[in-house]
Hints:
Helix content: 25-40%
InterPro entries: NOL6/Upt22, Nrap_D2, Nrap_D3, Nrap_D4, Nrap_D5, Nrap_D6
Distance between the termini: 72 Å
Family: Belongs to the NRAP family.
Strand content: 5-15%
GO biological process, one term: rRNA processing
Mean pLDDT: 86
Structural class: alpha+beta
Number of strands: 22
Pfam family, one: Nrap_D4
Domain Nrap protein: 2-79, 147-200, 224-398, 401-552, 567-703
Low-confidence stretches: 101-108, 141-152, 366-377
Amino acid sequence: MWSKGLVIQPMKKRTISKEGIAHLLKTFDVAICDVSGHVNLAFRMTKSAFSELQDEAACTLNCLDKCRDGGFEELFMTKVDFGAKFDSCLRINLKGNSKVTALSFCSDDESWRVLEKDVQSLLQQGLTDRTKMIRVLWRSTPSEWNIMDAIKFRKFWGEKAELRRFKDGAIAESTVWETETWERHTIIKRIADYVLSKHLLLRQEDLTHVVDQLDFCLLVGGQDPVSSSGALLEAFDTLAKQLRLLDDVPLKISTVQPLDSAFRHTSVFPPEPHPLAYEKSSQRLPNFAATCVRSLEVMIQLEGSGNWPLDPVAMEKTKSAFLLRIGESLEDRGMFVTASEDEVNVLTSGYSFLLKIFHERGLVVQKQAGDSNIQSAPSEDKELFFRSQHSSMINGLHGIYQAYGPVVRLAKRWISAHLFSSFISEEAVELVAAYLFLRPFPFHAPSSRVTGFLRFLRLLSSFDWTFSPMIVDINNDFNLKDEKEINENFMLSRRSYEQNPHDIEPAMFLATSYDKSSEAWTKQSPSKSVLKRIASYAKSSAELLTNLIIHGQSGQYTWECLYRTPLSNYDAVILLHKEKLCRPHHVLFPAEIPNGKLVIQGKPSNDFHPYMPLSKSVVRSLHDTRDKLLVNFDPTAYFLRDLKCAFPVTFKLWHDSIGGDAIGLTWESSKKRGRDEDDEAMLDPTSILKEVGDVGKGLVRSVHLLKAPKLE
């Protein structure tokens, strides 16, 4: 209809001719003729603005169709701004540009409008079908501008154009933008830079992109470790094939499924191949290698048998026996295996894999008893069931939305950087991020990491966690009956709200098709107070990120600030020796000494080093050197575990599980501490903090008291 123009006149009384309409369409981008037949109501509207309006209308219709509550909250109560709406933002500085020449002003065609159109045309020609929509906005009126004529391909691209033969035999002019896989999101940036620099004679410093500004927090040594994901998947395929071919185990292995987040593209730092984790010594050894290796969990299912014991303890013992036998078989086939009754780790193809057996008997017994949930299943089987379902769903989601993985990685890095690792699981972060892709209204699903991360922060801070469940329907499985069941489960979890609004669990209710009661990831944590703190941090970070996208860096407010956390918000701070962390190269910003009372200082231990030498003079036996590898060892994790055992109700511990050398500490309330707590000890918090330093001797650099506990 719009290509023919819209006339607001009855057909029988129409005063404007077809020629008149054709003249309007030739003169203006959009034609909406008023009742007089003489005025185009859309005379100031550009084609790009109208395309955006049409897109908004289509998105709104989709929202009305998908949202059973009518979409009022999404359409009328959600902030829509430049930073959250568009996937990539670019600021262009044209001050003093030599291409700008004097242009006369008129009411219909100001120079800034010509400028918008011309920049838009350049970007559309350069980016072609890589973009769905481009919108150019001018902030201040330039004094000069020159309109350029249409440019043919060779003239447009210059030396970047080349003749190429394609797979279908066609030969055509094309441009090639070679890049590493992990840098593909910057191709649009490179194209825009080239086109605008060539045709507007712009300098590099005149172009400021947003698309890669947060990459710094995902890089190790200037490269994204996700680049080794292909090797990881090949290593898993090799292991899975070997497991299925085992013929000396009483029951054949029917299913092998990876559970680690590295396999679903959401690990902040997926492990890189380790030189000592190969079957043969043909690998060229570097001078140094990491002492600690993270083992990737793999779930195994055996073929059916009626001989499994029904007793949970006996069942676990039987699974351990199977795992030990599997480990022996793999070792006989040349793999390096470390086995105990608790776990079996297999080192192969550069990686370590932790094997777990999942047995459905516990779940089947319940179903036979007529119980539809899985509350009484053995804890490990229940956990493996949840993780298996979750991994499958997230893998499928990543296959649909390529930006999902990078968005989750930024989100997890942010959660850890602000010391929330103890309180919110990585699966919970993945589900919250999934929600904004599945329910993006009033936007489209994000197609860039920065925009997706901004929306994640806003969702985390604005969602009504107290009175609403977050329903994450990844496979579009839910019907009205399912949603009713979820809402009933949610209302049951809020029964205690009137008696104690500060003590509801789960505070973050995440419902999925495999977990309609939010039991898997958030049942115990975060608490309402912790969730409130997370939401507050998210709101502050979202405001800063929005400002950075629109206006750029200013003074002390930089992109790095998004991942710096203020240590002054804690009652005490424990600083760790960076050189004693298992992965010191993952530390983003070394912690600064906080303003507070120094309680204790400690020297680094000589018993542990994060890197081991691998020179020929040191490595005499590859097998003996492998024995020095520490699988799944993390000094910080063991230190936190010991502190929680020693001080279970004295304080909360806040830490960064990905790469942090600081631990925050906040005193628990006297109500939480209970009557058994020694009040005299709380009067002297320095003595408690000295004990903290003693527990972490060799790892703890210093302990600082910022605020004494409140005694009620």
